[in-house]
Structure formats: C-alpha cells, structure tokens
Design brief:
The chain has a single domain, classed as MetI-like fold (Orthogonal Bundle). It is globular. The protein is mainly alpha-helical. The protein is built from 16 helices and no strands.
Length: 313
C-alpha cells in the first residue's frame, strides 16, 4: 500500500511541475558541483599533470602519493598558517565592526537609509579592484593611509612588503567590505522585541547589561550564521590577495611568503605548474578542513545560540 501511494505521487501534475522547477538547480549541482568533485577526487589519486594534458603521457594511478606529498611540502604548512592567521584576525574584526555599524544605524533615524547604502557600497566593489586598491592605499612610501598617518605624526609601516603588516592590511581591506554582514545584523536587531529592553531597564540593568543579556542572545542566530560564512570565506580567500601580490602588476617580482594563502598555492599548482593531481589533493584537504571547522562550530554553537520559541537547557 505504501509503495502504491509513493508511486501515485508521481502521477500528479503538481509533482512533475515541482521537479520541473528544481531540475535546473539539480542539473547545475550535478554538472558544476558534484561532477567536478568526483573528478577532482579521481585526479587526486593520479599523476595527472601537464604531460597528461598535452597527451605526451597517460594518466596513471598513484594512490595516496599526492596526499603523502602534502605532508612533505613546506609551503603547504606556510600557506595553511597564513590562511588560519588571516581568518582568525578577519572574522572577529568583521563581526565587531559590522555589529557596531548596525547598532549605530538603528539609532540615526531617517538618515539610516543613506548611511546604510554608503556602508554597503564597498560590498559590491569587484574583488580585483579591491586588490588593486590595497596597493594604492597601503603603499609604504606614497600610500594614502601612510600620508594620513604622517599628518598626525605617526610613521606608517610598509604595509605591502613588511611580513608583519601584510596580513593586517588584508584584514583592514576585508573589514572595509563589511556591508553585507552589517545588513544581516541590522535586520536581526530590528527583530529584537522592545519589551525586553523595557523590562531590563525597569530592573535597573545598565546599557552594557542590556546588550549582553538581551541583544546578544536575541541576535545569536545571525551571529552564528555570519561566523560560519566568514570563516569559510577566510579559509578560501583568493582574489584580492592574488591580484595584489601574485597577479599582473603586483607589488613586486617576488611575492612575499606572508601573502601566500592556501587557495593561491592551490591555484598555482593547478594552473601555473599544471600539477592537477597534486592540486586536486590540496583541494580535498581544504574541503576536509572547512567541513571540520564548520562541524566544530555547529557543535559549540548549541551552547551559545538562542532561537526564539525554543527552550534553553
């Protein structure tokens, strides 16, 4: 009886209409996501490289050789270290700045729409333009940032060449495009019931306690969502850094090691050195890292994220 009921569902026109609507997404997922993932896993177990691409040699199975090479490659360790440091700096900085701007916009009244647009504009700036802008603003000798610091008597560092200042400059440029996260927080703040603030004020809670005990718990789902998205974006950062330090017109002929992110090293192995098999293994390592970090965040979030309508244990 159950099987007949399941089959009878496919005879309904509504079912076929539903599958018709989801078919473009399903086709795109199989052709552009699932298919390439399966292919990359296969290539990660082979010696697929420029010789095989040119047809000079046949692709052969090498097993876990590419994965063992990951453990021996010193640049893998360097790229992962740079990527993790950048992500650890960028994520909290973006969240703090975005939340601060959202809380300010919540209180500026009619001018909020104008400033919301102004703050969001950097979000739609092409990443390549941001990479070029990085070199213009943070040039150690003629950069606009250092010239501004000179006006107040502060000697500016060599942002784009000093290894200690490369990642902070990248973080500043990432925080500059904070508009998307700010809009999410602004919507979350507007959804906080005002009676909670009134009750807290009647109990004598100061402003910082109302922020800690009312605002943060009520917007914690949005904070959790952006925390995951920003972490994934940080671990996959590529375009701005590649444009500034590794692409045409970069800061120098020899790119600094402090700017070597994992995604950039993966790209270079695949499309500059044509070590496709090794690059595929690198891609799967990055996938495992991202999935592991995300799962850890989801598990930890159960203690800190509050959803309205659900009781906290």
């Amino acid at each position: 009886m159950r099987s007949r009921g399941w089959l009878s569902g496919f005879r309904k026109p509504e079912t076929w209409f539903a599958y018709g609507f989801i078919f473009p997404w399903l086709f795109g997922f199989i052709a552009l996501t699932a298919g390439p993932m399966v292919a990359s896993f296969y290539f990660s177990l082979t010696n697929y490289s420029v010789e095989q691409i040119a047809g000079l040699e046949k692709t052969s199975y090498v097993g876990a050789k590419n994965y063992r090479q990951l453990l021996e490659d010193e640049k893998i360790t360097l790229a992962l270290e740079n990527t993790f440091i950048y992500t650890v700096m960028m994520v909290p900085a973006t969240i703090i700045v975005a939340l601060t701007l959202a809380m300010i916009l919540l209180r500026v009244g009619r001018a909020g729409d104008f400033f919301r647009t102004v703050f969001y504009l950097p979000q739609i700036t092409p990443p390549v333009a941001v990479g070029i802008l990085l070199l213009v603003l943070f040039n150690g000798q003629q950069g606009i940032v250092n010239r501004g610091l000179e006006l107040i008597g502060i000697p500016g560092p060599f942002w784009t060449t000093d290894p200690e200042w490369i990642k902070p400059s990248l973080v500043i440029m990432s925080v500059w495009a904070v508009g998307g996260t700010m809009v999410i927080y602004l919507a979350a703040l507007r959804g906080v019931p005002q009676q909670l603030y009134e009750a807290a004020a009647m109990d004598g809670a100061p402003a910082w306690r109302r922020f800690k005990d009312v605002t943060l718990p009520m917007i914690s789902p949005s904070l959790f969502f952006t925390f995951i998205i920003l972490t994934i974006a940080g671990l996959n950062t590529f375009t701005e850094v590649y444009t500034a330090y590794f692409g045409t017109g970069s800061a120098g002929a020899e790119s600094p090691e402090a700017a070597l992110m994992y995604a950039i090293y993966l790209f270079r192995q695949a499309f500059e050195f044509f070590n496709m098999g090794y690059a595929s293994a690198m891609a799967w390592l990055l996938f495992v890292i991202v999935m592991t970090v995300t799962l850890v965040q989801i598990v930890v979030s159960r203690r800190f994220v509050f959803y309205q309508g659900s009781a906290r244990e």
